[in-house]
Amino acid sequence: MVGKFAFSNYKEAGQDYIGPEGFEELVQDLGYSMDGIEPIILSWLFGCTKMGFVSLSEWDKAFKSLKSSSKKSITSAVDAAKNSLKDPAVFKEFYQWVFSFAKEPNSKSVPSDISSSLYSVIFPTYTHIPQFIDYLNQNDTVKALNRDQWNSLLDFSLTVAPDFSNYDFEGSWPIVFDDFVAYSKK
Fold this sequence. Notes:
- The chain is mostly helical.
- 59% of the residues lie in helices and 5% in strands.
- It contains 10 helices and 4 strands.
- Helix 3 packs across helix 5 and helix 6 runs antiparallel to helix 9.
- It is elongated.
- It starts with a helix and ends with a helix.
């Protein structure tokens, strides 16, 4: 299979998957930092279903799609995907995928600390995101974000004015946004 030899350089001993340590080594070998968006994009391109892990089938499918297993082909694909995130429709698709990728398999939410870490990496310069990250980090009542809250943040950041003047507390926003707006206006 294409890419199988390279897969063996990163996989867990005796397993058919790359675990967190191997994934970090792969990311470093590609010249990326684990603190950037590139590892998340790489996981997206591989169709990964669990953060920090790449299965053999995900690896094989990705390299079959790339038609190459070279470092240049991987970094070119990551760069192209990163550039494609400038398209709002592609970014929305990526953003919604990140939720499924970040949550535990049987969970319906992403812990707020993981959410805030991901937001700081995946959002370019969207209105309200830095404030929302601060809100999550300083608010002990928000333990996790469900899919509706996660997906709504993108719409919230695109439609609500920087001064919240068009925010409707009676609207259909999840309650976390009512609390966030009230918190931000203090």
